[in-house]
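User: Look at the shape:
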Amino acid sequence: MTRNIFIIILLALLLVNCGKNQNSKERWTAERANAWYDQYSFLAGGNYVPASAINQLEMWQEDTFDQERIDFELQHTSEIGMNTMRVFLHDLAWKQDKEGFFSRVDKFLEISEKYGIKPMLVFFDGVWNPYPKMGKQPEPTPHTHNSGWVQSPGREILSDSNKQNELKDYVQSVLSRYKNDARILIWDMFNEPDNANAGNFGGGSKAPDLPREEKLKRSFELLQKSFEWAREINPSQPLTVGVWGKPTWLKAPDAIEKFSLENSDVISFHSYQGPEETKRMVKGLQKYNRPIMCTEYMARSVGSTFEAILPIFHKNNVAAYNWGLFSGKSQTIYPWDSWKKTYTSEPAQWFHDVFRKDGTPYSQKEIDLIKALTSTKPKFAKRKKTNEQPNIIIYLADDLGWKDVSFNGAIVVKTPNLQKLANEGMVFENAFIASPACAPSRAALLTGLMPARNGAEANHTYPGPNVEILTKQLQKNGYKIYSFGKIAHGKKDNPHGWEHFHIKSANLDKVVKAFFNDTKVDGPICVMIGDRRPHVSWTKENIYAPNKVDLPDYLIDTKETREHRGRYYSDVTGFDQTMGKNLKFLETILGENTITLMSSDHGAQWPFGKWNLYDDGIRTPLVVKWKGKIPEGKRTKAMVSWIDILPTLLDITGSQTPNALDGKSFANVLTGETDAFRKEIFTTHSGDGYFNIYPIRSVRTPQYKYIKNLLPDYYHTNHSDILRNDGAGAYWDSWDEVAKHDKRAAQIVSKYYQRPAEEFYDLNTDPNEQNNLINDSNYKAEIERLKQKLNDWMETQDDQETVFRKPYPLSEPKPSKALVEGLKRK
């Protein structure tokens, strides 16, 4: 007896364990779901009921199943590029005539296959009339939105747990028949199960739905059962159920929403909101690392239009199902408020639907957009796919002027490797940093926040302890971060927790090669390389003849200036050579699926460059390459900021992007979809120790720049004119000498040290910002507009206009090296 009991227990345990190991009753893994989704290009279609049917029953009943109409309509939808449809089944249609029902479903699938359409089939629906009946369906209520749609199951079954259980045979017989049918894309288990239908069939109307709490309870009960029944059959297609309504489910899902998000193989949702809210939903759902489908959208009069929404879905590779295709008995050309408001004729703006009954499009412009997007595969997938995520190379120069590279027109200085990168990628002609000093610029890059918000305002200051470094989001998404040279700023040993941190900037080609020769690259990686060049002190090995170098007209042409310019150019070329070696080596180990981004932290250490908000201080070279994804050899005029770089990389790689950043993704610029991005660029400067105590703020548009100098009664200075070190600012002595007898030179020196409270430049006619138009009445309106924009922006940034050290008043002698050394000793 004991032995028999032992055997029974053992067998029971084995059966339990076997059950645990059967994937048939388990949710698909994210890897399986993503692999399934990757079979398809951009999935786009509609919620489908033929124009001849008022609801699901009229579509599927034998007497009203309109095969010819379905063929006509699916042909039209396929011709505009649609490749999927969301189609509602009904339990009563199955119950009354099982074999006939399956025969009609087979015929529908046959027609769908003929036109390359894979449908999503929906089992249950919690929306509209809770009293479905077989037989002749009612005629539409004139001019009323979806007046005849019915729930499945009806109230009588939904409200009774035992009657719910009778639906198991419906679900499982359908799934058993089609579980391996390649014509079917996916199963939607329950449309809006928690819809209370208030104001339509609820809220005291003549055909009330269940009371809200009872509806939620019973629908949740059936939803859980439906997933259990489906998992027992284990179809080859995935399961989903969508979240809908106000997206509180992004942060605080209720029980039904939580179940839906945690049990769906593929995440689905509804959005009838405008573009910004839709973007927020998509971004919030990407954290689940699964394919995303929007199974309802497009209601023109509330801002959900094809033009506004479909490009968002395409960009993010979200399957898109608009509501409404052919205007017909469902009457969804009328808005939701037609339940309460009287309409007497066709509205000027249709609410849903794409075609008139005869196949004429409502809007040819919409048709053209749908065709364009469905004919192109999304360039950037928004999911974490470890085996397919791009590797990333971020390559930074230090103090490299935007004009001093060949791809931005430099003639004398040679940068062949930068030119090669530009030929293979996209050049941004209007890229800007956040602040023209090393520490605040790099802090803004790494945080996506402007200096006043991240805490690094003056040079040699750093982000606050509670400010997130955005590379952490890459790490959470499976990336390993390898840093070489000057990426962040400061002397701390790996303050950001990167997998490798080599702080020295010398011999970077040898350092990088040695590291990767000894390191196995496992999974996606982000390699960040920061060369110290052409930061001062510039090399003594001058490869450029001083008499051959070119000088901008706002520098004073002296022998010493030219010698230093040649040394600066020599470091630029040295940077280019090392970068070329590193990129060539990294290409051999990372392959083509690599995003390479090159830029500089701000302008060069020349007067009116670094530490200034003129373009030579804030404008930066930027080129981005990704073979097969980013157009080669393209130039864009889109204005972007350094605060946008990491949000863009997070966006492209499907990593989570924190809320409330100042930076935003310019991925759609990289794809070539647009050349428009920022309308204004804001920049700030707050000083650098004892050498530069001159805070500045500015706003720049494509044509104009307004500059606010916070301390116009004090000297503008920096390390170069105070220290006058060899290889940095030693040419200043020659400037002082020339300025004694040369009026133009004296003006340049004066302009360097003394600035007005406000400056305004027309960049179209004065790109070097030499003619201050602040008092020109012709520009008064534009000056006031930009001044107000800057002040408003500073307020939103909580910019306190902090002066970090005691400035040097114009009433006293210019600050000298001796003065600064004395202050530092104090």
In short: The first helix runs from residue 2 to 21.
